[in-house]
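Protocol step 4 of 6: structure prediction from sequence.
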Amino acid sequence: MRAIPGFRPAVCPDAGCRGRVGRSRQYDPSRPIAPDRDAPDPMHPDPAPLIDRLTRHARRLVLVASGGGSAAIAALVGTPGASAAVLEGLVPYAREAVDALLGGPQESYCSARTARRLAVAAWQRAAMLSGTAECPASACLGAAVTASLRTLTPKRGQHRLFAATHCLDATAVAELVLDKGARSRAEEEAVAAAMLLAAVAAASGGDDTPPTGLLRPGEQVIQTRAEPPTAWRELAAGQRPVVAAVPATDALPRPGGVVFPGSFDPLHEGHRQMAAVTAEIAERPVAYELSITNVDKPALDWIELRDRVAQFTAAADGRPQLWLTRAATFLEKLAVFPQHTFVMGADTYVRLADPRYYGGSADAARAAVRRIATEARGLIVFGRVQEGVFQDPAQLDVPQPLRDVTYFVSQREFRLDISSTEIRRRTLAGEEAR
């Protein structure tokens, strides 16, 4: 394995940890390294060997730099031969630009999750730009860095950065908290750029140790990586329509079942109680469905998907069945789950007939309603709190064909004022307080 000039190798303290799913590691830069006067400056690594590596591995790359590290893009595209490997570089600097790229506001704009989402958006962009038989999605790579660095006004929080990569084979993210005040803005920018280049190098078959020559005493790079099972990878590549994730089998949905679609971010008591009430109403067990794709947001990365699936394997009420799909829309779910009964909240229910979700076409919305009423065995709809007011699903204004196949769960049968969004908000507030 050929080393990349400028990136000093460090020895992983756990020699057997490389390649394991979800393993987090810490590298200690405090050990002395013998000086090498001939070594390139680690603050400005030579990008030429990286371009050569990307080209030899037939990788097609899109990079995103938000909040810092954009010099990595300039370094790569300014290297001869870069056009054979680099498709695009994006610098969504303002929050509005990040929101546009990721499909909405983020809980935090400098976090491991946001870096991974940006890397997935970059990967999907690469697949869109070069998705041909000669360059399939498996050859594409997305890389991103998001950073909170030194500014004119001193920051109350940490100076930190996250560099992530995503492809069909793996998702990886590296986190670094900088020694606050120890570097100039230009020096922190150089660290962010070098971390992004190191992440791309690791995802292209290079050494996955971080560039320790950049670190000050006490700084550590924490890396997390996840590799998907073969079935998940085939699902993401469009080679399968559905995967049985819990329990992990080769089974396919059989007509007549009951399915509860959702993002489950996180899975909470409200979901569990809704499933229990549904099982009593339908007199059959309820399976959950999680789509790895989204209509207007990036797909789920492998670390995110691993963590969401783990909620079901560790569920206190046993191991409920979980399907993974690529069915981002309800009409796509109808095809994956023929003659099924679908469980949903009132907010999802009203969207089934809303022309805004069919390109603004009222005719397309009416056709969708007819198809849902014909192909779904039934709909079980729960009310929920919207802006502090409980939304009774039976009072919703929806077309009669939908009402004819719907069982409305009354407030007396079920009401639990809890939401995944609120849980995420409280979790983030607790993390920031620490």
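Step 5 (inspection) to follow. Confidence is low (pLDDT under 50) at residues 1-25, 27-37.
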